[in-house]
Amino acid sequence: MTSPAKPETKVVFQRPESFTDTTTHYCPGCTHGIAHRLVAEVIDEMGLREKTIGVAPVGCSVFAYKYFNMDFVEAAHGRAPAMATGIKRVLPKNTVFTYQGDGDLASIGMAEIMHAAARGENITVIFINNAIYGMTGGQMAPTTLPGMKTTSSPFGRDVELTGFPIRMSEILATMDGCGYIVRRSLHDAKHIRQSKKAIRLAFETQERGLGFSMVELLSSCPTNWKVDPNEALDFIAEQMVPVFPLGDYKVNSELK
After folding, report:
1. Nearest Cα to 213, choosing from 165, 171, 173, 167?
2. How does pLDDT run across 6-32, given as a tens digit for each residue?
3. Which of 40, 44, 160, 172 is at 20 to 30 A from 64, Cα to Cα?
4. Domain of 128, in residue numbers
5. Which residues of 43-56 are buried (b: 16+ CB within 10 A; e: fewer)?
6. Can you give the pTM of this predicted structure?
7. H/E element holding 209?
8. pLDDT at residue 135, as a whole number
9. Residue 81 belongs to a domain with what CATH number?
10. 167: left (phi over 0), alpha (psi -120 to 50) or beta
11. Distance between CA 231 and CA 246 in Å, rounded?
């Protein structure tokens, strides 16, 4: 009697080579892990791993080097664009990217990101916008929504006292040195797929020498928002997207 044939199996997903085999430290429901995976997949698919250098500043992104299987350096809070500028100018054939949160990029690092964009530095920025300071205790960030409660705005953000949210993609799109500036979201499968395509185009912008590129990703922070992971995804779609509209804000004509 012959044994029944074993069903054929097919690998539909495996860990990207640009990822390390490391247990995540991120909070349940945090979308940093998704953003990491998308970056790693794009780098693998473009064959860039051996020449890529990542720059992580202070914030939840500070441990990004634990997850990416490539050269990585640490920068002072907000200074990742400045460090990336130096690395790219010394090693122009390498692919250089920063991975930054909204508190880091739009607050203490505002000068660095603005001037890197104005100079048209040929680097790529992955900008995680979760509308709050994550690692440092859930304080109000430059991107915090009007009325949104944080540890430093317990009654909700009062725009008369603290101003309105800063829309970085719209601002940077006015810079002549920028080749690709877009905003995407990580709140569902459709938008995650769109985010990956945008990340690839951002790296292609750099590889083709078309100037500064940035992909802003609307992301969740269930712990500091004090909601469960599902509610956090709904918050992105229902509350963040109206304030931070998704779209292409500047795309070099050579990419179309």
Report:
1. 173
2. 778 888 878 899 999 989 999 999 999
3. 172
4. 32-251
5. beeeebbeebbbbb
6. 0.94
7. none
8. 85
9. 3.40.50.970
10. beta
11. 20
